[in-house]
Structure formats: structure tokens, C-alpha cells
UniProtKB/TrEMBL annotation, chains A, B, C, D:
GO terms for molecular function: nucleotide binding; oxidoreductase activity. It comes from Cellulomonas chitinilytica. Signal peptide: none annotated. Residues 10-135 form the Gfo/Idh/MocA-like oxidoreductase N-terminal domain. This is Oxidoreductase. Residues 143-290 form the GFO/IDH/MocA-like oxidoreductase domain. Gene3D superfamilies: Dihydrodipicolinate Reductase, domain 2 (3.30.360.10), NAD(P)-binding Rossmann-like Domain (3.40.50.720). Transmembrane segments: none annotated. The lineage of its organism: Bacteria, Bacillati, Actinomycetota, Actinomycetes, Micrococcales.
């Protein structure tokens, strides 16, 4: 399939579950809609089960398979390693890939601990390959527009941020245990899984960093059914009657200070009945305000405080105009995009950076900085919600 | 004007500014739409300036005037003293009124300090007169419906509350000083003025109390123009060039724990550009969720988690049906009410309680409990946001 | 009760049902919030049942009663006759009042037939008194803002109007007959009762008139229970089993041409399940668009087509700023108004016009023009929806 | 690329503009997310310009090219002809394809005239191949849910439909002429381009057909700039100063009767400033109501009239649950889909039908029925909006 005379970018993906499916669609789709300086070649996907990974490769469009990620990393035809596994394996794979001179795209959170994340940043610094962490929601056009308006000074001095990531998929105590509820595998619960996203979004949109937090964590349902071995992780299957402990947080709430002096409230929960994937960000500034909700992802609400009060109001901008980031490559105005498009945009930005030998954003250092916020949240929550300051962003953070 | 054979309730109101106007409209209007067991008689209004109070009395419908509130309290034709003055005078007036055997309706916050509020509760306990504090937003029909749904178990165990009171009237640093920005007069800033309302609302709707807080306060604009003596408090008049300090908070944010184990986030600010009077309350529980925003005050959003997921969704209930609290006395379905109607409903509930010699709610003890929350917020904010537990509700709290 | 030294305006109201209650509240409230050049005196209310009208007078605040409207019209202490009766009596009362030199405020629709309306306009022309028809929704501040934006040229050439008045109170076939379903009393059904409002609103906001219509009328439920004599008109009481015919339309839909060349669609129905009082008006013009829904009556949505597409969007203007029509007399920003406030505003505008001896709007001629539209709708619907042109507006129309 | 052992379906696509891009993405993506009984093989794409079609083939993923659609139709490796050209060529290509024993997927509107559409239906009847017309919006999950609720009786007897398709891309008179404004190529303007969609949607969701119409058509801007030969069809390029006539309608509005007795209003326009692709459908029935707006395409609003009025309200169903049509193949709840997903769903349904040798829907007969509605609209508009009845649906209509 000769798409274009552009050089080839050999991609090897590790993991093929939810994130692997989304990344595959992005690698396949990006060159169909965007002019890429490198042509992604879906070379190989790795997974431990030979039959399953072969079936996934066929389904998702990967040419070859490996049952050991180390073999994938070692291949000469792989230029970039795309890490779509749970967080406890990110550091090992990324370190090996960078050591092998590969580029790396690593799903968020960067790692399960600050120490791992630091090691990853250290490895990325000076490595031949370029490294990026997958805070995909930055690539939603409405979020890009929010960032643009802040950059243009349309919001002014940021006074308030309220950031929420609300889901409800384990609000029912009958939902059984799974790896996402296991601290060993997942690192943390709602905090790292979804809280990490809104921390990144708040910092990305405002262009500021958090300088400290005061936090609470809670596990509402501390014991859950063990999923029957035959029912898998489906969450609703019949169970054996046995139960096991939930070792991560169900919800995290915290206050924070922004580097520009503003106040922020954060909330990440899997217990907000009726909210399915409500990523909400509201920013109030001296010159205007912004509001976004992923449940209406093609829309940004913007208030311009410079207009006379009698005709001012939050403006519902349908972010589907050709001038909006990424949108010109897709459809006419009013024809909205969906969840997976942000992954395609991530591929576009990553490939552009690689071709220019430019650090893609968010970098591993950006991922580490988010990790430090999560760590500070945990420490504050363990210490009577006491104010817990954050250090300056790591050297090399690209934000 | 013979409205009905019901006994007369002589009302004396102290203060006739914003709150006095709203209360007057309520006293005048309640008997026109509701069957009251006592007929309010707008007997006398008190204010220090003789001409101004006379003009206000004519405008607002009060028969007589006094220039000293003590004279008002002493009058035999006054059965109830309605306190509409700034917070620093609440305690004195209420104590005198209760000592004189009068009923008392006192605007919120109950007082500027916990000590004053405690004295007021002590005075109310065992007094001949009955005492009520004016958390008026409880009387919005949509808020009543929210409470009803919680009482019916339709929300289940409360997991999350997010409560916000967002305004923007001093977001512009050019807005001059006024008594609301003076700690001596106002006690606190956004915290006591509007934060008190959402604390009360959150507790009222959930039927729970806050057991502790972790808080931050902020004054974004610490120096403001002194209003020109000729420009008054209008906020936009020309000023002399002199400035003075803002001695209260511009914004308050805090985390809290509910007595049932849920997590809550609170935010009260006068710096949320574009939000005019956005009192927002969202409650997520194991059986359902609620969402309210005063900017659309005739509507309550309700999610019923017992419905099959494929047909479940937040239901936009237009709270204008005859079965809804208070609504049957007004207009047909779909003909919404406005801000001041809640004050009329407050009169209705108060008069009903007085006629039955029943403690009206919210009581002074309820007001004291809110005051204690505000106090804990200030102490936490002054102590590195450290977790600050709250004592049990005072004896006699009617909640 | 000495409100002010302004001259007295003696008001006599005929009818005291739904509209009478709303008008009474307006007469009582207007001088409390607005500076009126004349002081309304709620002199007398007329109704056929002596006991009932006396009770209503006490409840609603009228000093005296009459059991014959002719006696009311004849009184020297009555300067203005306020007609709140069903449409079949409007003409008689208005003609008598004008003949007696009184001012007249007449509820809409002006009359049940064009002939009656023409007689009323003729009587108003040259009469001593001034006459106004009560298209109250014009006085909602958001509607006034819509009109202002059109007048300022912010909408440009009007291309489209879509106007709907949606209710659902007789969607259930078990709802019994009442006078509103009887052509003799009501003149027409949804068409005259609520369709008249959106015809007036569309013309008022655009500043244009309809030049022709193509229409359909429908009676979905042609036979309904006769209300039991003991169950009254409540609509849900037990019934005798007898049924009777519905002689008016349940719904009206029509196309229209605006005088400026735009296209309009109109819909009035009592069968829109879930829509309680949804008065919706959307106007699309060459320079911008407007959208209003009475179910969120304090809000106007405005699209400014002159903004760059990437930052353009419908702006949700909360119409509660002091600069908005009428609003400055009420509450601070964000404290919304309700249904009945529009009646208070109607009193304000009427009294201002009377004091200045200026024709109030909408005039009887405006009411006649709406009546002619309704008549054209009926004629088109009876003639295969054929295009039915409208004559020019009557002489003297104040629009 | 061996996806699976399923038989191959050779696809030949004619045209590769907007619709060709959307169809290509669908053919590529469907087998990645859905289990298809046949494996689509993107065999060949046809276009008149050899270089351009080759570039398009590479970009869109088609193996081979033809510069004459007749050659494409003649190929043995093509099982299905996918027609993505303007309406004036649909009939010729479809007739040839069916004659050659191919399956056909034809973009809407089926043809530019009723006569052509009738010929296409005749050809499809008894042909070896199966034929489908592309009313893609049916495949939006929220639209499917709307249909399901109607089928389950949750809406009851349909009383009202209001259907609108609102765009604004030629509201500016400076937008130059293009083939879509040329009656020869496009057949009609807004009526056939977008009005056809809402006619199909209204009939699909209600399960009823239109029995007659009363209509108006309008061309607001009758003369437009001729696009400079170098500026192409971009719509904003510099122009030579020459102008030419617009020969199609800018907007269409019409009333209709549904076969079940309900009333409908329709509106299709390219002049609704601020509305980008607002496909709105509201259905009011005796048992409930539905409302959909494509600008929020993952949501359906549903009112259940069987609930007690005090807790009833329009329910905002986020249509992203695994039980919703097509959704289970994509992402977790709350992760919305975009415009192009409906094309993927169209491929899924078509391939399923082909494998089962079952008539896919909507059939050519369904397309003809819509064409007859459009024709009746034009005849009514040309005859004083007179009521124009429609014949019964053609034999063989699959709806």
C-alpha cells in the first residue's frame, strides 16, 4: 500500500486492550485524513497470549506479532514503541525502548510511582528517541480552542479552575473486583486513572502548574465480589460468592493553588451516578471564562467579560470550523467528531514532532509533573488534608 | 383592609435595603396567594434616617416608622421582629426582641461570630417567641423537590456533593470598597455572604451535616478604590483616587465530609466571570443523582439509577406542577416563579409555624451550625488547610 | 396608604379568574418597585356572584365590588376598565367603557371575531380613553432584548422565524370539557388562546407583519367527558360518563410570509407531551440569530454572525442586568423574574402612556391585526391550506 | 491483509469527494470494530481525472482506479457499486450496476426526479443485486433509540412532528455559485440536499408516512458571484465580478400530515445563521415525546408521560451504553461517537443484509417515496401552497 513517498515509521505496539484498540484506529486513520511527514507502518503488536495477539493483530491491522515485548523492542523494523499496557509495566518497557534507541509513546499515567516516572524522565533525557506521554484529551479541538483563548489573553488572570472527571461504572457495590481496583497493578484508583487527566487538562489549558494541594481520598466500597473465573472482567457476570478488598481509591477530591495565584478544585470519581465520562473544566479569569464538558465534546463555552454586561453571555462555540485545530482535515461545520479522533490527532502531532526531531508534548517530564501532583494528593490525604506544596516542574518539562 | 377573620400578626422590620425590599414584598404578597392562619400586618419599619425610612415605608407598604430599632422592639403592636440589617447587628436586635417576647425572623448569616450565634441560640431556647433564620433558597420549589427525593430514598447513600455559589460582581478591580468588603461590618466576604447559603442548602437537601472541613480563603484584590462620597456604593461611580484595604475573602473553597460518609466540595466566589448568581448543587448517591442551578431556578435535574442504563438519563423536571411545594398557589404548569417567591414561601412557612406554636425551620440552632462550619473553614484556612472537625449539631437544631 | 403625591388612577377590573389574579398582583406590585406617574387605586372588581366576588376582592386587594360590569363601567371613581373575562364578552365591555370615556386594558385575544375586533378599533379611534390589548409576553425582559437587538440591526434581514407555543394539558383524552374547548365561549382553541401570543411575539420582535398564511387545524380528541357537576372544571374529577363534542382546534400549524420577505413557521398546540408552557421563538437573519424559550424565561440566546466563525456561537445572555428593560427596578444580576412580572411591566408601560396621554402599545389596532391573522389561518385551513393573503395593517396600528 | 475467513465483498466506488471520503472511512473501519459476515475489499474507485483519482485511491485506501464508471461496473472483482456522485448521475450508474448483477449503495437523494427514481426502483425489483439508498442519519445511535422507543409504544399515538435541518453556509450573499446551487446538477437546493434527510428521519422514527403537504420554497439570494476559475469551489475565493443565477431553493418550509393522523412541520434551510448542521426532530405523542439535535448527536431527550407529573421531565439519555445500537462495538459509556460513525454503521447493516440475501433498508422504494414527497413539496409551492396529497408508498417499500 503506497500511500506517499514519505519515509516509513515502523510502529510496535505493546498491549491491545481498550487503549490498544484506540491507538490502532489512530495509526490507521491519521494518514487517511492528514498529510503526515512519515508514513506509519503498523509493524508489530505484542501480547503474551499467542492466539489472542494474532487475532488482535488481524482485527486491528498489525502485520506481525510478538509474545514478548522485549522481542518487539529489539526489532530493527520498529522505530517507535507504543505502550498501551497497565501502569505497572510502563517503566520497564519505556526504559528498554529508549535504551534501544526507539521513540516512545506511553499511555498515561506515566508510571505508578514518582520514582519510576523519574527514572523514565532520566532515560528520556539525552536519549536518541523522543518520548511522549498520552494525555489524549488535550487533542480534543474544543480543548485546543480553550488553550488558544488563554494564550490570546482572552481569559486574563486565572482566578478559578474547577475540574471534574465524573464516572459511575462502579457505583454499584455488586461490580466485581478487577485489575483497576488493585493497587499493585493500577497504582491508584480514580486518582491516577482519571484524576491524572483533569490535572493535565487544567495545567495545559491555563498554562500554569499546581503549586500545592490539600486532599481527601475515599474508598466507598471496600470489599467487592471476586469475579468468577469464567465470567472474566465483564463486571456483571455471576460470581462465586467470595469477596476481596478494593485497595485503591474510589474517589479523590482536592484543592490546589495555581502558579498564577488562582484557586482550583479537583474531583475524580467513579461514583457519580448518571455521569458517564463527564470531564468538566471551568476556568474563570479576570477577562473571561471557559467551560467544557466532554459529554458535549464538540462544544466550548466562552464568556467574554469585555462585552457590555447587557449583551454578554456564555457563548456556545461549536468547535467544528476549519479554523479549529485538526478540524479542517475532517468534515464540514457542524459534523462533530468523537472520542477516538483525539487519538488520531495525537498521532499527527507525534509524527510531526518526530519528523522535525522536536520534543513532542506532553513530554515524559510533563508526565512526571502530573505524577508528582498525584503523589502530593496521596500524601496530603494521608496527613489530615494538610497543605502539601509541590516542587517546581522538572527540568525539561515541555509545557 | 379586611382580608379574613384570621388573627393579626404585627410585623416590625428593621432595615429596608435589598433584604428589606424582598421581605416587604413577601409580607405583602403571601396572604394574596396562600391561606394563612394569621394575617400579617406591616406595622412598622425601623431605620436611622427619618426621611429615608419614611419614604421606604411608603414605598414598601409599612404603616409606621421608627428611627431606633429598640423602639420598634418595644411596641405592643409588634408580634414579630424581622431583622434585615447587616450581620454585625443581628445579635443585639435578636436578643432584645426575644427578651421582649417577640418572634424573630433573622436574615443570614445568623451572626458574624460563633459566640454571637451561640448567644442567640441560648436566648431562643425557652423564649416565648419563636426564632427562625432566613436561608431563603430552601424555599425554592426545585430545592424542596430535591429534598423530597432524598427523603424518599431516591438518591440512596450520598457519595458526593458539589456545591458552588458563583458571582462576578467584584471581579473587576475597579469596583470600589463597600461595607460588604469590610470585615467589621460583614464578618467575612464570599464565605459568609454566599458560602453560608450553599452550606445550608447542601445540608438541607442531603439531611446530613458536615463533620469537618479542609479550606482555603483568598483575597485576589487586596486594595480597592474608596468610593467617592458623592458616588455612593454604586460600584461604578467616579472615585477620588484614594484606595483602602479589602479585609474579607474574595473567594472560599473547601472540602468537607458529610455525616453519612460522603465527600463534598464547596466553592463561594465573587470572581467567577460570567456567573451572576449561580447557586449550583449536585448530589450523587447510590440510587440516583440531583443537579440544580439557580440560574435556571424552576428546574431540577434528577437521575434515577434504578432505570435500565439504556433508557436512563438526567431528567429535566420543570418544577411548576401543582403537586410541587408552594406551586399550587401560583400559576399553571410552565409559568415559572422568580427570585422573590422564595421569600413569600418563607413567610408562609413561618406564619404556619407561629400559628401552630411550632419551631420554624431553619432554627437559630441551624444557623449556629452553619456559623460553626464557616468558623471551621476560617480556622482550617489559617492552619495550612488542615482537616478541622466540627462538633455535633447544637442541641435543639431542628434540621 | 399615601404612596406618593401622584394623581390617582381608579381601576375597575371585570373578572377575577386566572387573568384577574395576575392583573391584581400587577396593579398592587407596580408602584412598589417602579416610579409611576399615576398611583393605581384598586377601586372595584366586578363578577356575577356576589359572595364570590366579595371573597375575591378581599383576597386580591380590591376595595369595592359590583355584580354587574355595567355598574362598574358607570362609576365615577373608575378611570380605567381592566377586562379579564373570556373573549366573547370583550367587545361589549370595551365598547361600553370607551363610550363612558374610560381607558381600557383588554386581555387577548382582542375578540372572538374580526368583526368584533373591528368594532373595538373603531370605538377606540377618537375615544377620550386610551385602549391597550394585553399581549403580556412582550414585557418579558428577554423578549424586549430580542426586540432591541433587531432594532439595532444586529439580526439584519430576517430570513426565518420559527414560533411555537407548546402545552400538553389536554393531551390526555380523559381531560373533560371546559369553556376553553367550546367555540361559543372561546372563539377558537389553541389558535386563539396561545397561537395569538406567538403571532404577536413574532411580529413584535421582528418589527414586521405577516402578509399571508397557509394553515392546518386539527382536533385530535373530538369527544370528551362532560365534567361532573360536582367536580367542576378541575379536569381530573370523576365524570358522569356522558361526553360532549370539542368544538375548537386542539392544534394549529401554519406557514407564513413576513413583510420583509422572510419565511415563518407557527405552531400552537395543547398536545405536546412534556412541554408545559414552551413559548419558543427563533429568528435567523443575515447578521445574526435569536432564540428564546419561555421555559427558561430569563435567558436570550443570540448569535452574532459578524464574529469570526472560529469564535462565534450562540451567546446565553442572562437577562437580569440593570440595563435590561424593567430589570433595574427589581433585584441584582442573576436573580431571575417569574411569569407574573410581565404583568407588572404591562401596568408600568400602560400607566406611563396614560400619564403622557400617549397611545399605549399594543393598541386595539394591533390586536385586530393579530385577529385577522387568526382568521386567515382558519380560512386557509378550511380551503385546502391554500395561501391566504392578509391585508395591510389597519390604520392606527401602533406597532 | 487476511482479516478473517469470511468471503470477500468487492467494492467499487464512484466519486471520491465529501461522500466518497466518508464512505471510504466506513468501508475501512467497519471490519475493525464489527464482526462482518463478508470482508469488504476496497477494490476500485472511479473518477474522470486519472491523476486525481489515483491520488484519491492512495489516500483513501482503494487498490485500483478507473476513469470511466462503466469500466468499474463491468469488472468481475466488483460485487457492489457504491455511488457517491451528484444526483444527476445516480440513475445511470445504478441502472447499469443492477443490470450487471451488482449490489448498489446509492447516496441520497435517490435521483433528481421522480421519474428517474421510479426507473431505479423498477430496476431494483427482481434484480440479482440488492439496492440501498444512503439515508445515513438513521444509523446514528440516538436516532435508532428514538425508533426503538416508538416501536415499543413509549410515544403512543403521534400527534406532532417538528423536523428541521438548519445550516448557514450560504447565508452570506458573497458566497459564490457552485454545483449545489445549479438545478441541472443538484435537482433542488436545500429541499433535496438536506430536506430529504429530515423527511426520511421523520418517517423512519415514527414508522409512518406523509400523506400530503402544503409548502413554500424560497430563494433569498437569486444572483451570486461566479467563482473565479482559479479559486475553485472554496466559496470564499476572489471572484471575477461576474454573477450568475441561483436556480435552486435556498429554503423549504412545509406542513404535512402523517399517516397516523398527526401534524408535522418541516424546514430545510441554508440561511439559519449560527446553525451549522442542526438536524432537529421532535415528536410528541399521547404517551411521550422525543427530541434530537444532531449538534448534540450522542444524546436523545425522552419524555415519559406515564410518570407522575411532579417527577416527569425530558430525560437526557446519553446514547453510549453497550445496549444501544452499534455502540457496544466501540467505546465505554460516555465516550461519544462522531459524524462518520453512522457511515460505518451503514456498511455494517448493508453487509449483514447482503450476506443474508435480505433487502437492506432503506430500499430504493423508500428513496422513491422520499422523492415523491420532495416532488409534492415543489408542486404545492408552485400552486399557492395548496394541499398536495401523496400516493401510497410504492410497492416493495421496506419501511
Amino acid at each position: 500500500m503506497t500511500l506517499a513517498p514519505q519515509p516509513r515509521l515502523g510502529v510496535g505496539m505493546v498491549g491491545y486492550a481498550f487503549m490498544g484498540v484506540a491507538h490502532s484506529q489512530a495509526w490507521r486513520t491519521a494518514p487517511r485524513f492528514f498529510d503526515l511527514p512519515l508514513t506509519p507502518d503498523l509493524t508489530v503488536v505484542a501480547g503474551r497470549n499467542a492466539d489472542a495477539v494474532r487475532a488482535a493483530a488481524d482485527r486491528l491491522g498489525w502485520r506481525d506479532v510478538e509474545t514478548d515485548w522485549k522481542a518487539l523492542v529489539a526489532r530493527d523494523d520498529v522505530d517507535l514503541v507504543d505502550i498501551c499496557t497497565p501502569g505497572d509495566t510502563h517503566a520497564d518497557i519505556a526504559l528498554a525502548a529508549l535504551a534501544a534507541g526507539k521513540h516512545v509513546l506511553c499511555e498515561k499515567p506515566l508510571a505508578n510511582t514518582v520514582a519510576e516516572a523519574e527514572a523514565m524522565v532520566a532515560a528520556a533525557t539525552g536519549a536518541t528517541g523522543l518520548a511522549m506521554v498520552g494525555f489524549t484529551y488535550r487533542r480534543v479541538p474544543a480543548v485546543q480552542l480553550a488553550r488558544t483563548l488563554v494564550e490570546q489573553g482572552r481569559i486574563g488572570t486565572v482566578r478559578h479552575v474547577r475540574a471534574q472527571y465524573l464516572q459511575d461504572w462502579i457505583a454499584d457495590p455488586a461490580v466485581p473486583l478487577s485489575w483497576r481496583l488493585d493497587k499493585q497493578k493500577a497504582g491508584s484508583g480514580a486518582l491516577g486513572d482519571i484524576g491524572a487527566h483533569v490535572v493535565d487538562l487544567a495545567q495545559f489549558v491555563t498554562g500554569e502548574t499546581l503549586t500545592g494541594v490539600s486532599a481527601m481520598l475515599e474508598t466507598f466500597v471496600r470489599e467487592r465480589p471476586v469475579a468468577d473465573q469464567f465470567s472474566g472482567l465483564s463486571g456483571t457476570g455471576s460470581t462465586s460468592g467470595a469477596t476481596g478488598p478494593v485497595t485503591v481509591d474510589d474517589a479523590a477530591v482536592f484543592l490546589a493553588r495555581l502558579s498564577g495565584g488562582g484557586l482550583a478544585t479537583f474531583e475524580a470519581t467513579r461514583f457519580a451516578s448518571g455521569r458517564k465520562n463527564a470531564i468538566r473544566l471551568e476556568v474563570n479569569g479576570s477577562a473571561g471564562s471557559l467551560a467544557f464538558d466532554f459529554e458535549d465534546m464538540n462544544v466550548l463555552h466562552y464568556f467574554d467579560a469585555s462585552q457590555p454586561a447587557w449583551e454578554a453571555g456564555f457563548r456556545r462555540i461549536v468547535v467544528t470550523e476549519p479554523e479549529h485545530a485538526y478540524v479542517g482535515a475532517w468534515w464540514p461545520p457542524g459534523h462533530g467528531l468523537g472520542y477516538e479522533h483525539a487519538f488520531t490527532h495525537q498521532v499527527v502531532d507525534l509524527v510531526d514532532a518526530l519528523a522535525a526531531n522536536r520534543q513532542p508534548t506532553p513530554s515524559f517530564a510533563d508526565g512526571l509533573q502530573v505524577q508528582r501532583v498525584l503523589d502530593a494528593v496521596e500524601r496530603s490525604a494521608a496527613d489530615e488534608s494538610r497543605w502539601t506544596p509541590l516542587n517546581e516542574p522538572a527540568e525539561g518539562a515541555a509545557r
